[in-house]
Amino acid sequence: MSYLKFDKQLMVNLAQSLPKEMLRTNRSGAYHCTTIVDCNTRKQHGLLVIPIPEMDDENHVLLSSFDETVIQHGASFNLGLHKYQGEYFSPNGHKYIREFTCETVPQTTYRVGGVIFSKEKVFISHENRILIRYTLMDAHSDTTLQFRPFLAFRNANSLCVANGALNSHYDVVENGISCCLYPGYPTLYMQFNKPVNFVYQPNWYKGIEYVKDQERGYDYKEDLYVPGYFELPIKKGEKIIFSAGTSAVKTRSLTSLYTKEMSVRTSRTSFYNCLKNSAQQFYYKRGRENYLLAGYPWFNVNARHMFIALPGCTLAVDDIEMFHAVMNTAQKALHHKIDDGQNDSVIKGLDAPDVVLWAVWALQQFAKMVSLEECRTRYGKFIAYMVDAVMRGKINNLYLQDNGLLYTNGKDKPVSWIDATDAGGHPIIPRTGYLLEYNALWYNALLFTAEQILVSPETAVVAEKMKALAAKTAVSFKEVFLNDYGYFFDYVDANFADWSVRPNILFALSLDYTPLEKSERKKALDIVTRELLTPKGIRTLSPKSHGYAPIYVGNEAERSYAYFQGPTRPWLMGAYADAYLKLFGISGVSFLERMLIGYEEEMSNTCIGTISELFDGNPPYAGRGGISLAANVGEILRVLKLLKKYNI
Predict the structure, then answer these.
(1) CA-CA distance, 550 to 431, in Å (whole number)?
(2) Terminus of the chain with fewer CB atoms < 10 Å: N or C?
């Protein structure tokens, strides 16, 4: 039985099926994303969505959807599904769906009278090409299939409007056609593994609506261009493969190409396998360099997100080579940034002051999960280099004070992971001065480097200097952050201290090196558990704190305000689990395992097989925001790996 299976009863009920999305990627930035009934509900949805570096840093929708029609005895049954004004759906192809499964690849099974056929979709790794395999499982008479491509050729964050600038020309290629609607875009090749008849019948389908964009207060109506339709017969038992890509393909190779891709897929037969597959979807290879995308569908490569997600998305799924590949790319980018002030063209956010602190944390996880000795050999100099850069004031907007703490200015621009801004680009939560997680990470980085990395006689002097600085930092940390109620100020600037109960407390409790006594950690963790812990992650603000706004809905301004005022973040469960196990050891394992049940439920919700960007802070804890976030997937995988050590 498939782990991810949805029957006819759910599929035909659009109230249940439309909120469920699916995602496939090629590990080089391209993706396919839609709902499980193949009705696009976001402008970022599409059958073939690709980055075009020559144009910009955004993704672009080439092929929005591909509508199938079954013809028998002269009667046509259109299996497509689009939403139009007034809650009107057409052509209502979902009513023919018998079931949808997503064990190895997405598979939809249709029944139209006596016709039963399936379609399966697979992305080709590191190539802008998606394949759809159609199998006629049963039919009692001659059957013909028609296919209508809905073309967009636009930025994934924009919408298309019917226009006269479109280039309607197409070329006949092997078993298909090619076209390019606008200058600057690559040519789209649509081909089959057998001869096909293309009927040129250009038309604009106007007023297609995207309900998710409508909910979020964005423009949501689009016109899509259909150049005509493909038509070909299919026999019982026959398999037909369709290819959409930015280069021509030898159609004789499509069957073997499909089979090869299927052989390397991770079957989603368990919670772990779903997350493993999801983690690998964030892999992003561009030229010779490797990265982690922060998420889908609108995220790019972000330095902080990448370092937070990296251990879980690679090491926790035993992909050590990918960890090295991404870290090598990041290492070069950080050297350029620190030494020359040069920003990377792909990795965004390198100028955030805490990026080097998260990089050290990621390498510390490598030392713990793989090998401390290998960490010293391969990354020891890089770790010491980053810590030394902080000490020498080489990091932008990060100032080491005489008391050993780090100070940053976040009044005009967000400087931490709590980075929501208003319409003018100013921080909604202006965390500035001494930030709690900055200094927890800093203390940890100093002692990790001094005690575990700089162990040779040649580095003894530097190590002792770091230890002395850490001792000063420890004293100041308690003096500045620890308050009379047993938890920690979120940030302190001059005479102002923020009393809000936020999850940054966890970084003072969870890191391997902390200046806190066990009793202090226990008291603070109790507060986090009572006020921030939910079945879907850690709240970004306690319900008892001023400004609590747990539901992430409304227009852009309303959502921006609520973003860090209560909604939960699953990735913070990594720090929570670390803190909990450091206090309770093996006796805390069963509690944490129960907490993970909430994430396993999500494998069948929102975007199936992965974890949403955030969840509401109040029941029923609905998933919101981006459909898949690397940090969430990575940290839950790291928790699973951590718990596995205790269960051996």
Answers:
(1) 20
(2) C
